[in-house]
Design goal:
247 residues; 4-stranded antiparallel beta sheet; 3 helices
Length: 247
């Protein structure tokens, strides 16, 4: 139990400090005061110099690139005692092919959220299901996650009727259908990996700019290579499918 919250503590020969507690829905988030790391949220309460100007709460994982830090102005008279750093919930939804409509089907009704690739922000964890629909493809359903950062990727199968229309056939050639499925699946997985590695490389690069750690620079270069290979693989998969449509 906290005995002192938001009070000034007189230390002989030292500057006055105050005790601050951070309450958050991400207990593993990092706490910084004027750029100096103080620990995680669960390490509080924190003794902060009265002259400190800003307290920042940053997400734990570097991969959650869209989560913005929460900042508190310590020069304000309101910055005493308990600071509530409640992060929104983020939902990243990707599909292959992109451009699919994303609906939230919930007990309170259906809502269109946007098209893939989608980044949706909610003040609370979503309830219900995601319905992902694209013309000419079979729809898919996903259950939204309950974490602060949620990432979902799905491959939408081409409907039999759409394959037949594109190939000028009354019925798709099922003996060769596996080629289409394999090509599109490969392209979808490779595309998701390309985005994943590119995002990790960007995050590592930002951290390298702050620390100049040579190990981080090597990781950035390695992730760039992985991303390039994944992009090439995705292009090959799409090329094979395009060739099958033509011939």
């Amino acid at each position: 139990m906290l005995c002192v919250l938001g009070t000034l503590i007189a230390v002989p020969g030292a500057a006055q400090v105050r005790s601050l507690t951070v309450v958050s829905n991400m207990n593993t988030a990092h706490v910084f005061v004027d750029g100096e790391w103080m620990g995680r949220v669960t390490d509080g309460p924190f003794l902060v110099a009265q002259s400190a100007e800003e307290l920042t709460v940053k997400p734990e994982t570097l991969d959650a690139w869209a989560i913005q830090p929460i900042r508190f102005d310590l020069t304000s008279g309101d910055a005493v005692g308990e600071l509530r750093a409640m992060f929104p919930y983020y939902y990243r939804v990707e599909s292959m092919p992109p451009g699919a409509d994303v609906f939230l089907v919930s007990p309170t009704g259906d809502e269109w959220l946007g098209e893939t690739p989608l980044l949706y922000q909610s003040p609370a964890a979503l309830r219900g299901e995601f319905l992902i629909a694209h013309e000419g493809h079979t729809s898919a359903r996903l259950v939204p996650g309950k974490e602060i950062w949620n990432h979902e990727a799905v491959t939408l199968d081409i409907s039999d009727a759409n394959v037949a229309r594109r190939m000028g056939l009354s019925e798709p050639d099922r003996r060769r259908r596996w080629i289409d499925v394999a090509a599109l699946s490969t392209a979808a997985v490779a595309g998701a990996l390309a985005v994943h590695y590119r995002t990790k490389a960007d995050n590592r690069f930002d951290r390298w700019q702050e620390t100049q750690d040579p190990n981080l620079k090597n990781r950035v270069q390695r992730l760039d290579v992985y991303s390039g290979v994944a992009v090439g693989t995705m292009q090959v998969g799409l090329g094979v499918f395009a060739f099958r449509l033509i011939f």
